[in-house]
Amino acid sequence: MVAFIFIFRDIFLGNYIQPCTTKHERTPRFPDRLIHQPEKAFSFTRLPNFLFEAPTFRPLSNEAKVLYAFILRRTELSRKNGWADDCGRIFLYYPICEVVDLLHCGRQKAVNTLRELQYAGLVEIQKQGCGKPNRIYPKSYEAVPNTDFKKSGSGTPEG
User: Fold this and answer.
1) Contacts of 116 (CB under 8 A, 6+ apart)
2) 104: helix, strand or coil
3) For residue 64, which of 105, 100, 117 has the smallest C-alpha distance?
4) 42 in helix, strand or coil?
């Protein structure tokens, strides 16, 4: 009875491995493939649904959608650090070399992906000159023209 209680507790806590053994095999199969690993801390990046559901953004490449998600992630950091211009608009720096490392692509592909986001109206890029990185001003989906979620049937990005 006591053994049953401990097994039930371990199953409830996610620590129990089903003993999948045969006569010839005495070790559990696939113990390293368990999802429940509380000792590791993972960070996640949120990818907005409207990038896939709204007709305006469907033509965007997947690289552009992923890059926009990372830009939004950095926007929160810029907001916390108080990076705003004279008008109060939040900006961030995302050097091309970091975009290349993020997307695992060449320099020209990284430039084209940023330009794709700019043409879609999701970011505004302001050149600094003198070898300084460009300022990137992220925009919300509401600021993009021709984005009507009620007509597309996809609802709001949160819904």
Assistant:
1) 60, 61, 64
2) coil
3) 117
4) coil
